[in-house]
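Researcher: We are triaging several targets before committing to wet-lab work. For this one, the compound of interest is flavin mononucleotide. I'm pasting the protein sequence and the ligand SMILES. What I need is the predicted three-dimensional arrangement of the protein with the ligand bound, expressed as structure tokens, so it can go straight into our comparison scripts without reformatting.
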Amino acid sequence: MVGLSHLPMRRLLRGYTPEGAKLLWPTEMLNSRRLPNELVGKTLETLRDTQEEGLVPQILGNEECFIHASVKKLLDWGACGIDINMGCPVQKALRHNYGVALMGDPDYARKVVGMTVKASHLPVSVKLRSGHERDMDFLVRFIEGLIEEGAAWLTIHPRLASEGRRGKARWEELRQLRRVIRVPLIGNGDVQTSEDVLTMLEGTHCDMVMVGRALTARPWLLWQIGEDFGWPAPVGRVGERAPRTAREEGAESERALNYLLIQFRELYPEALGVRRFQFFIRTSMPWLTFGQSLLGPINSSRSYDHLQMALDHFFSFDQEMMLKTDLRS
Ligand SMILES: Cc1cc2nc3c(=O)[nH]c(=O)nc-3n(C[C@H](O)[C@H](O)[C@H](O)COP(=O)(O)O)c2cc1C
């Protein structure tokens, strides 16, 4: 997720991952026209820790030469798969005919998968939406085309391009697709709690679940899910229980945000790190009962020290977290 799926976030999440659990870790979407000229591994979007496993960088693109050059670089960087973005609805992506624009051109979309598959031995996945119109037959045919070209799995966010993140994700579509699609399917959209994860898995029979926005507020969701499945605690947290009550989650939020700020200080130049931290808070804040009052001081901060002061002040009062919130579009 642009501005969110970065190394500080992955480090934060790793601290909450049940010991031994295997996850797929996407990156922010990476423009395949730019990657060939970039120092992959040194840019902010591609910083990684050496011990990281399961990295599946997401690329945006539609031209063979750029895709090939990008995949080669990502292979050397340590990718264990390549994800193609066919869901991004922003104007820039539409203008360049990638992102969800590819869903308007099924023949070309499958060629993009084919050219990515040819570029390396890595598995190739696609992240897509329901399309441009509600048409299940079209969607099934579209997906079958991607699979014929070698797509190894799919992540589906069941909203139309025009819907952005408005309204509710239609999990029912995931259920219908799961019945007819022959590769693993990852369901996505509006998952906020461990119960939501179980409901999505049981209700749709998807093979995995992708959580987006809610993980910024509740990174310990991974720990909660692990507990519900009977998995081991995260490393260093053996003997502890995952935070569950509103008060426990409020207290954990303080620890998580402080940890994140330390990571930003270590990894990002100050001006950029401050902007990224502000963006992170804007995404995660709706789950905090009084999150609105954190926003002003965070947004007006111009340095890491200011951000720290804003956090310290906010958490000098006991904070609580809501289980669910109206997800903003
Ligand atoms: C700030 C932001 C950036 C996003 N960037 C990407 C992206 O780079 N690639 C992508 O496939 N989806 C991206 N998405 C969409 C999410 O992956 C996800 O499909 C959507 O937020 C719905 O899932 P959620 O309800 O769990 O957040 C982004 C969403 C947000 C809020």
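Researcher: Any quick observations?
Model: DSSP finds 13 helices and seven strands in the chain.
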